[in-house]
């Protein structure tokens, strides 16, 4: 099945020489079966700086701008940050969803509801097993919003950043930059049923005490709860925008935090 849809393997193939240029290797971290096809998952480490950064994309297969923008970032930008940071990068968490441009992964479920849960799927297990001994200062989890009502882009800030005025100021700076590009920011008081502060959804001060985070089963929340990452920032670009705009914003978002890291 996957052989007729070359998107995932084609993207991995373009990333392999990119990591080689960075003196890194995109390595297989596990595999699972989709029908009768064995599907490998890949990750890479790069850089040798003191701050530990995790970048993940492609948990939701239809949110194509996230892995594609990450690929552009890896090709053109990552080399500028290798002395300040050590990166762990999982470019596509949901290969079959990326191939089919659909949200769900194996088991026909939303993988971002099953991290840390007993009834999870192979993709969840492979990713958590790979990350279990890590400790990240900051996790950038790349997502998009289907946004059928054209409400605009927004940010989730989970963990240490969710109660830090300095982090909020930086988030607003980035959201203001998005507005300056003529792209809408969702400033509604509630987004997806959650309390939002002018485009930022704080995932609770003291995330460990927020039962919703554990219940949600998202990768970002799960890693904060396990003490693997201190902070997660998730930018949700609106899929109402052109792919070109979304790539531009997502790529800029990664560069923004790497140029302004705090704490
Ligand atoms: Zn998503």
TrEMBL record:
Needed cofactors: Zn(2+)
GO molecular function, one term: metal ion binding
Domain Succinylglutamate desuccinylase/Aspartoacylase catalytic: 51-148
Entry superkingdom: Bacteria
InterPro entries named among the record's database cross-references: AstE_AspA_cat
Record keywords, A-Z: Hydrolase, Metal-binding, Zinc
Protein name: Succinylglutamate desuccinylase/Aspartoacylase catalytic domain-containing protein
